[in-house]
């Protein structure tokens, strides 16, 4: 009888890296990029012992109900709000994610998006390509400065700290808000000052969102929060779209209640709110903050290592490098 474990890879990922799974398991690969229906996910997981998934794959109790063999899900991404971790823990499924390997790349991008919004870089390029540059003028496409400005970071985990460290090179004043205050030595290293949320909103010249998504922070940045911000401020979101009320943001950007925004994530991605698409003062990118070639390869490598180890194979058998639900692992 065939005793090899079976794993599902939910979409095409670097073949040379994912191919390492074949040394240990039977691999069922999906040729199609993009979202699967809940039924397709449940069907794919049914005969599997493990899965390598992405933010395109929402998985909870219903999707694993007919997957009695399932023991491990390796998420390619540090954020895992696509997974219902408590349901998976209850089902005995070890969940892993990919922290650390994407921190610096994502912080680079957050900074770039903030700069693009503040200095109107994509708007300026569109203006030039549209043939509107007929004469140079002193008042063309004026933006706002980063140097000397106050950067507000909401969510001061690894990526938030990476952005803070970059900001001190730009001589920005850094303030942050987080569920819990950082130890004093980390605050010193980041040159960041802890403030409450209202103070962060009202004092930031540039506000960057880098907090994990959970229902508790759904539409945290709504019309009321936006009204507390300076009209000259910019808002950058590299976290999850659901943290921002996009209609309220579009309204604030259209009415001059907020100067500009940089968005890499959207509530209904890959669909983008048409009210945002209609605005000039928002820089829109398609969820690519972790997307350098080296980092995306490192993420898939870590996810593959996690899956192999979580299923009891390889040098780290039973000890996946970055588990999310250590309790599920302990229950083994
Ligand atoms: C990934 C991300 O591209 O890591 C995250 O949380 O949002 C991105 O880096 C995405 O999760 C891929 O699944």
From TrEMBL:
Keywords recorded for this protein, A-Z: NAD, Oxidoreductase
PROSITE patterns according to UniProt: D_2_HYDROXYACID_DH_1
The segment(s) forming the D-isomer specific 2-hydroxyacid dehydrogenase catalytic domain are: 19-315
Q: Which intervals hold domain D-isomer specific 2-hydroxyacid dehydrogenase NAD-binding? A: 111-289
Query: Which Gene3D superfamilies is this protein grouped with?
Result: NAD(P)-binding Rossmann-like Domain
Which superkingdom is the protein from? Bacteria
Q: Which Pfam families match?
A: 2-Hacid_dh (PF00389), 2-Hacid_dh_C (PF02826)
Family to which the UniProt record says this protein belongs: Belongs to the D-isomer specific 2-hydroxyacid dehydrogenase family.
Official protein name in the record: D-glycerate dehydrogenase
Q: Which organism is it from?
A: Lysobacter panacisoli
Organismal lineage: Bacteria, Pseudomonadati, Pseudomonadota, Gammaproteobacteria, Lysobacterales
């Amino acid at each position: 009888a065939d005793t090899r474990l079976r794993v599902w890879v939910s979409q095409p990922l670097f073949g040379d890296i994912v191919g390492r799974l074949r040394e240990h398991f039977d691999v069922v690969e999906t040729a199609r990029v993009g979202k699967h229906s809940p039924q397709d996910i449940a069907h794919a997981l049914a005969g599997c012992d493990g899965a390598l998934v992405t933010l395109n794959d929402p998985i909870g109790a219903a999707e694993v109900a007919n997957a009695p063999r399932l023991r491990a899900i390796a998420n390619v991404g540090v954020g895992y709000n696509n997974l219902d971790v408590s349901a998976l823990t209850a089902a005995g499924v070890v969940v892993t994610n990919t922290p650390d390997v994407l921190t610096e790349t994502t912080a680079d991008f957050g900074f770039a998006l903030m700069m693009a919004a503040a200095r109107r870089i994509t708007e300026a390029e569109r203006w030039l390509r549209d043939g509107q540059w007929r004469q140079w003028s002193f008042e063309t496409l004026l933006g706002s400065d980063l140097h000397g400005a106050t950067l507000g970071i909401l969510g001061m985990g690894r990526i938030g700290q990476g952005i803070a460290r970059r900001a001190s090179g730009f001589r920005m004043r850094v303030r942050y808000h987080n569920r819990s205050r950082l130890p004093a030595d980390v605050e010193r290293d980041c040159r960041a000052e802890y403030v409450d949320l209202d103070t962060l909103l009202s004092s930031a010249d540039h506000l960057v969102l880098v907090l994990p998504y959970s229902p508790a922070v759904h539409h945290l940045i709504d019309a009321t929060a936006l009204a507390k911000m300076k009209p000259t401020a910019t808002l950058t979101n590299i976290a999850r779209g659901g943290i921002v009320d996009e209609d309220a943001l579009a309204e604030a950007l259209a009415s001059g209640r907020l100067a500009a925004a940089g968005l890499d994530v959207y509530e209904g991605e890959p669909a983008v709110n048409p009210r945002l698409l209609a605005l000039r003062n928002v820089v829109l990118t398609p969820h690519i903050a972790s997307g350098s070639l080296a980092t995306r390869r490192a993420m898939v490598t870590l996810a593959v290592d996690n899956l192999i180890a979580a299923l009891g194979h390889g040098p780290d058998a039973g000890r996946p490098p970055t588990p999310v639900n250590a309790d599920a692992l302990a229950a083994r």
